[in-house]
Write a structure and sequence with these properties.
The complex is a heterodimer. Chain A has 10 helices and no strands. By secondary structure, chain A is mainly α. Chain A has a single domain, classed as Four Helix Bundle (Hemerythrin (Met), subunit A). Chain B is mainly alpha-helical. Classes of the chains: A mainly alpha, B mainly alpha.
Chain lengths: 252, 79
């Protein structure tokens, strides 16, 4: 199958190199459009005034923080079942962005909570499960960087990614399952959205932008990871960028 | 456009610190991530160059074991 040939780093490396600039460009355009709609076009909220505009950052980073963890779990299943070399590298490449977005979800949530709830933090189900997601990301990063042997490191990381994935539906449904201070879902797959369409447009544009950004930077990062892990392989040493870097080092 | 002046935009109805604190920190950390990723790429290229040097040294010492001097030693190959 042709798809599986891309699981080999020497085939995925050039593909990722061709893809990331377009994804980054599209992410930038969509982010500018989303910020314009959210901050210049959308009206203020009847209950929350202008403070609600944090939604254009908070909801996209929170969604994508959860999506990235599921993507890591997906790559981990592939890695454990098919033993593909790409899986561990992709999981590793996604983790820092996931951790950053989970942190931003908590940060923007705190800055939204203070004016609306009167507190930066409360130990309710939604906030606590999101904090656990951040710790899972940090745990994954710490564990995989502590184990020297790449294969063992990948397998241990894959287990953390898989077991931790249980937390994602808990975050998502926490506002239904428990009585939380956090508001319920404004947008769900089963009901029509409970917000004005212009606000929804801004939020969806920003979500798409963050998603594309996450894919672009993960592809960028996986290329660096591939260089290091396959640094003794001929295909890496023959790359034009490696030759150019070597020439520069020789001069310096 | 919903704003009548720039100061009204920055004030965000009195919630400016919260709104811009969210936007600013998010933008700054994303920029930091991009910068770190670029640094990571340079470090990865450095690692490959070091691996190449090590490979050349290994090859040279293999040759000397077999009693032949490598025509192109480590210094000869490095540009």
């Amino acid at each position: 199958m042709k798809l599986f040939s891309y699981a080999a780093p020497q085939n995925f490396y050039p593909l990722a190199g061709r893809l990331w600039p377009w994804l980054a460009l599209l992410a930038t355009v969509l982010a500018l459009a989303g910020l314009w709609v959210g901050f210049m076009v959308a009206p203020s909220d009847a209950q929350q005034g202008q403070a609600y505009r944090i939604i254009y950052i908070h909801v996209p980073v929170s969604w994508i923080a959860m999506v990235i963890y599921l993507a890591m779990a997906f790559w981990s299943v592939l890695g454990l079942v098919f033993n593909t070399r790409l899986s561990g590298l992709m999981t590793r490449a996604l983790a820092p962005t996931g951790a950053l977005l989970a942190f931003l979800s908590l940060w923007t949530g705190a800055l939204w909570g203070k004016p609306m709830w009167g507190t930066y933090w409360v130990w309710d189900a939604r906030l606590t499960s999101m904090l656990i997601l951040l710790f899972l990301y940090l745990g994954y990063i710490a564990l995989t960087s502590a184990i020297e042997d790449p294969r063992r490191s990948d397998r241990a990381g894959a287990l953390v990614a898989l077991v931790g994935a249980v937390n994602v539906p808990i975050i998502y449904f926490s506002v239904k399952w428990w009585n939380t201070l956090h508001q319920g879902a404004s947008v769900s797959l089963t009901q029509s959205p409970r917000m004005a369409s212009v606000m929804l447009t801004g939020m969806l544009l920003m979500s798409l932008a963050i998603w594309l950004y996450a894919v672009a930077i993960a592809l960028w990062r996986v290329r660096s990871l591939m260089l290091v892990r396959e640094s003794h392989a001929a295909w890496v040493q023959q790359l034009p960028e490696v030759q150019a870097h070597r020439a520069l080092r020789g001069v310096a | 456009m919903i704003w009548t002046s720039a100061s009204e935009f920055w004030a965000m109805g009195g919630y400016g610190a919260y709104v811009w604190g969210s936007v600013g920190v998010s933008a700054a950390l994303l920029a930091l991530e991009v910068w770190l990723a670029r640094v990571g790429r340079q470090q990865a290229l450095d690692a490959v160059c070091e691996a190449m040097d090590a490979d050349i040294e290994d090859a040279a010492s293999d040759h000397s074991i077999h009693g032949e001097k490598a025509a192109n030693g480590p210094s000869g190959v490095t540009p």
